[in-house]
Protein 1
Amino acid sequence: MKSNYKKIGDYVRQVSNRNTDLKVMNLKGINIEKEFMPSVANINGTDLSKYKVVKKGQFAFNPMHVGRDKMLPIGLWKEEEPIIVSPAYIVFEIIDHNHLDLNYLMMWCSREEFDRNCWFTTDSSVRGGFSWDSFCDLNFPYIPLEKQKEIYHEYFVVSNRISLLERILSTVEQTSYHLYREWFVNFNFPMNFIDSNLDSKGYKHSKGQFIWDDDLESEIPFDWSSGTLEDIYSFQYGKGNNNPSNGGIYPVYGSNGIIGYYDQFNNQDAPVIGHIGSCGSLVYAFGKHYVTYNGVMCNINENYGKIFGYLTLKSKDLKSQTRGSTQPFLSYDMLYEIKTVLPPKNIESKASFYFDRIYRHINILNNQINSLNKIKDLILLNLSKI
C-alpha cells in the first residue's frame, strides 16, 4: 500500500444530534447513487424526536444491507436546511477542514473499489451490516488540501456537464413525445402534411374531417385506419437466459436497459421491451446491440419509420399490458394484440422526417454523456494511483 494512504477514522468523527425539539421534519434516505432522496418509510405514529439530524457539510450512511447490496449508501448533505435520517443511520463530519476536503472524501466514497472494501468487511449477520469502526478503519489516499480541491474541481466540471446534457436530453425526448401525441393521439398534425400547398395549422384545429372507428372505439381522421402493433412490428425474444457480458463493444440489454457488454450483437437501432423482470419497460437501443431472453426485440416494418414505431410503443403504456401474478410477463403475442391507429404513408413519412432528425440529436447527446461518464470514472479510478 502506498505510504500516503491514511485511515478515514483519523479525519472524521461521529455525531449524533437527535431531533428532540422536532424542529426538522424533512426525512431523507440515501439511494444507490449515493444521493439523498425523500424517504419512502411510513412515519405515521413514529416518534421523530429519535431521528438523527444531518446539517450542511455532514455525511450519513446506512450501515444495513451492505453485505446484501454490495455497496454502502452514503451521502454528503449540501443544502442549508438540515434534514433527519433514520436512527439506524450513522452521521459523521470532518474534524478539520484544513486537512480534508469534504467533496474529496465523498469522491473517494463513490468509487466501486470503496464499495467492494465495505462489502468485504461486513459482519456475518443475515443483513450483512457494516459498523462505524469498520468505516473508520478504511484507507484513502491523503494528499495536500489544494490538490484535493483541484482533483474535485475536475470531477465537478465533468459532473456538471453531464447533468446539463442529461437535462437537455430529457427536454428533447419530452419534446419528441409531445409532438407524437399532438400529431397521432390528438390528431392535430400540420395540414401541410396532407398537402404541401396547405398551411401548417393543425388538422383538428382546422376542423378536419373525422370518422368513427369501431375497433378503436373512437374517432380518427378521414382516410386513416386502425390496426395492431403487428402492422408496424415483428417481435421476437432475445437470446440466452444469462448475461453474456464479456467486456465486448456491444451493449447487452436485459429487461430494463444495459446490463453489460458483449463481442456479438443480434439487433441494431431498435426498441427493446422488457419481457420478464421489468416487463413492459421500454428503451431505444442505438447502434448494434445484444438482447437477452428477458427482452423483446422489435423489428420495424419497412413501411414505417423506426422512431415513429418507437414513439407508438411509448404511447401504449406497455407496463399495464402485462399478465401473470407470480411472475409477470409480456409476450410478443400479447404485443401483437395491442390496437393502434395507422396514419397514411405520406403523413407518417413527413412526421418521421422530424422524428429521425430529433433522435439523431438524442443519439449525439447520449454519446457525449457516455464519453463524459468514462472520463468521470477515470478520475475516480486514478484516485488510487495518486
Note: The chain has a mean pLDDT of 94.
Protein 2
Amino acid sequence: MTGLLLILSVVAVIGREAIREPAADTPAIAIQVGAIGQVADGFVVAFEALNQANGTAVAVEIEGTLMSGSSLVERSVATIDYVPGHGRTSGGLFFSKDPRKNRLIVRATGFQDP
C-alpha cells in the first residue's frame, strides 16, 4: 500500500508540473515597431525586441509581413543573436514595398535557449 501511495504521489507531481504555467525564466519577447525609412533598395522598418521575462533568449527570429486584406504582399525575417532577461535589442526589417501602404505585422516567431 505504501508503494502505491508513493507512485501516485510521483504521478501527481509530474502531472502538476506538466500543466503549470510556463516558468518565469521562459523568455517572453514583445516587439515594438519604430521608424519606417526609405533606403537605396526599398524600405526599412526599425524594431525593438523587449524581453519581458527573466530568461535569456538567443537566435530570436523576428518576422515582418505586409498584408493587403488577407493577401500576403511581402515577408521579411531577421535574427537577433541575444536578448537578455528583461533586456532589449533593436534591429530592422527590409522590404521592397512601402510598409506604410499596407498592414504591417511584426512578431517574434521563435528563439533558442542559451
Note: The chain has one domain: 24-112.
Protein 3
Amino acid sequence: MVGASPKPDRPSHGVMRYLLAQGYRVIPVRPEGCDEVLGVPCVRTLAEIDEPIDLVDVFRRPEFTPDVAREAVAAGAGALWLQLGITSDESRRIAEEAGLDYVEDACTAVVHRTEVQDG
C-alpha cells in the first residue's frame, strides 16, 4: 500500500486495517519517516519488496501516481489501484501498456465489502 499512514485518522490507515483483518498481506510503502504501520514494517519503495505483488493500492495525490505506476510495472505487480478520488490518465496508460489490471477512483475496502456481501 503506497502512502499507508501510521496515523489512525487517515483513510489509508483504516483501509489497511480492514484488509489485514480480512487476511490480506499488506506491506506499507512510505518513502520516509515511518518504521511500521499497524505492526507491519514499512519499506521505502516497491523494489524493496522481495515477494510477488498482486496489487499496488495507492493513496497518493494524482501527480505522484505516474511514478508509482512505473514502479509497479518494474516490480512486476499484477494490478494498480488508485484509491477513491484519485484518477490519472498517464498512470492508466502506463499500467495498461504494461498489461497491469487498472482501477481508479474506487476504495479497495468498499469494493471488497460489496463483493463479500453480494457473494
Note: The domain at 11-118 is CATH 3.40.50.720 (Rossmann fold).
Protein 4
Amino acid sequence: MNDEQPPHALPVALVDAELADLVPRYLNNRWSDLSHGHSLLAAREFDQLAGMGHRIRGSASSYGFDGLGEIATKMQQAALDADAVELKRLLSRFERYLRDVRIRYL
C-alpha cells in the first residue's frame, strides 16, 4: 500500500463476516481514540500516544483494518521520536481513514 493514496481511492477493509456485529463498536472506539489522541498531542504526552499507536496497531489487523494498523504503526514511531508535526499529520490520516473506510465482509 502506498503511503498516500490518490484522493479518489477509498480505503477498503477486508473483515471476517463473523466479526460484523463487533465492527461498529470497534470503529466507535477508534473515533474515541482519535479524539483522545488530539488531546494527548496538545499535552505533548508522547509516551501515551506511543502506547495508543501500539494498541491500535495490534487490534486493527485482527479486525481486518490493515490500513489503520499501518497508520498506527507510524503514529507509534512518531510518538517515540516526539515528532509532533508528524503526529498531527498522522492523526489527520487516521480521521480520513475512519471517515472513508469501506468494509467488505468475507
Note: Residues 22-105 form one domain.
